[in-house]
Amino acid sequence: MLLPAKSEVARQLRHYRAWERSMLASPTDVTVRTTFEDSGYTLCVLMGKRCAREAADAAERYLRTNLVTHAQEPPERLAPSGHRAPSGAA
């Protein structure tokens, strides 16, 4: 599966959360509600989910998992030629 760019997922998730707060503060404002629903739809498309809440949860897991995974991986060692060095080589 092709995964979206982490920066785009983070941006859309921030956008969704901001409109969610606005919608909760002004639930009768039609413009705020419509924009919130549009941001949820965008997040659904990006994350491949049918429900905005599921999409937001998936986005948070995706961002959290990638950050932890990359932080735990040792940096690749490159040989002077720019290729990956054999195991055990410095």
From TrEMBL:
Q: Identify this protein by name.
A: DUF5133 domain-containing protein
Region of interest: Disordered: 68-90
The organism named in the record is Streptomyces hyderabadensis
Q: Give the matching InterPro entries.
A: DUF5133 (IPR033457)
Lineage here is:
Bacteria, Bacillati, Actinomycetota, Actinomycetes, Kitasatosporales
The superkingdom of the source organism is Bacteria
| Pfam families from the UniProt entry | DUF5133
